[in-house]
Amino acid sequence: MSTILDLMAEQPSSDLAHYNFAYLDEQTKRMIRRAILKAIAVPGYQVPFGSREMPMPYGWGTGGVQVTASILGAEDVLKVIDQGADDTTNAVSIRKFFEHVAGVKTTTSTEEATVIQTRHRIPERPLEPGQTIVFQVPIPEPLRFLEPRETETRAMHALEEYGLMHVKLYEDIARHGHIATTYAYPVKVAGRYVMDPSPTPKFDNPKMHRNAALQLYGAGREARIYAIPPYTEVVSLDFEDHPFEVNRFDRPCALCGAENVYLDEVVTDDAGGRMFVCSDTDNCESRRADGHVGEMGVPAAEAAE
Amino acid sequence: MSLSPHHDTNASTLSGGFFDPVRQAQQAFHALMNALARPGTVQPIEAVEAPAALPRLFGTIACTLLDPDTRLFLDPMLAGDPHVAEWMTFQTGTAIVGHESEAMFGMISDSREVELAAFCAGDQAYPDRSTTLCLSVSSFSGGKALRCTGPGIETSHTIAPAGLPADFAEQWAANHVLFPRGVDLFLSCEGEGVIGLPRSIQIASET
């Protein structure tokens, strides 16, 4: 079965089907760029934009892809992660897409990247000034499951009326004894807008606060772009007596021994065997290359043999 | 020099703009994006050929952000020169509007006279429907010291652009208090680049 990338690769570059740099036409990029500028000026506010059809289905990160396509330059180095991993389907196909339509250099290293597109995690390694992280967002409206009408949620944002969100968190506590929301955990940006950080595990919420990198969020199906400028206050909503807490893991990564990182559970056999490994593959690989070994890992030199 | 503006249209309006639109627009946008994301920092930006009356960095910003979907306001000095409007229309296709409050973008070549409140601050529900103003300043130093704090700034950043209105800090306070409504500024200085001042930041004059 041929994929869209195969079909595109079959076209000789001089043929009629010639793509503009980074796929989108310049008029579309200008429209998205204007939306990005407004998004940066009003942190956390969802700017409507004319989302385009992309050569991949909605739900595959079309919002993030459009934002990335609009900011990407020939000199940029792109990293794409799906959860924390560089090597899963979504990450690989989007990385290939941009290699093909923009010819940019790609990397799996967080340090080397100038633009990082993510679904949905934030790398463990602290981001640096000058880096931009682009989030693929499925549902940008944090109030949508509480109030289905766009006209109403828009008025609620306009009036800074976020009581309903606190009621939702309170109901969590009433039912479960604690705030049971573990991803897409609502945040307040720069003291004004309540924002959905996309289905990022709440473990990563503290990384959004005063991050040195520019954070851009693109929702393709819902046609919204929003942003958090560097060093912006991002507060996870909570209560005085039920403060925000991140997930804790009771063991380190089985491969690299890292503590205080987000772990994935991997089932290893059909007899209940399992291991917990770093979700951030780049972080895990660079730690192992530096000689860190977890309880189920093997030293880097041995693994290479 | 011909008396009718139509006779010398070609020479001034067809020349200039981007010669490599895809690359140049991306580079200029990158600078503008970083300028707004890191308020107060000077972001270098390439100047394009433009009519003599138009600050050349306005030309770059126009070629980067304007198209038939935008509405541009030109200050009386720029609007007074037919070459500028002709160049804008030919190079970008933008509509040119006569009133500040209708503008998505405003270009002000004499920044000392600018009145931020005259421009569109957007709607409380749609704060993105506001004017982005480009102000040309003579220098990024030598003016009144202005201390910027807020999103995009780690602690604080002090700028001192020359050629802003005397009451700029008061005008800005009136603009910032409207948040999330308000106008966003790009200060441009030939040979230097742009400084972005988004509505989200606070600016206080230092004494």
From TrEMBL, chain B:
GO terms for biological process: organic phosphonate metabolic process. It comes from the Bacteria. Gene3D superfamilies: Bacterial phosphonate metabolism protein PhnH. InterPro entries: PhnH-like_sp (IPR038058), Phosphonate_metab_PhnH (IPR008772). GO terms for molecular function: lyase activity. The keyword Lipoprotein does not apply. The keyword Lyase applies. Keywords: Lyase. This is Phosphonate C-P lyase system protein PhnH. It comes from Notoacmeibacter marinus.
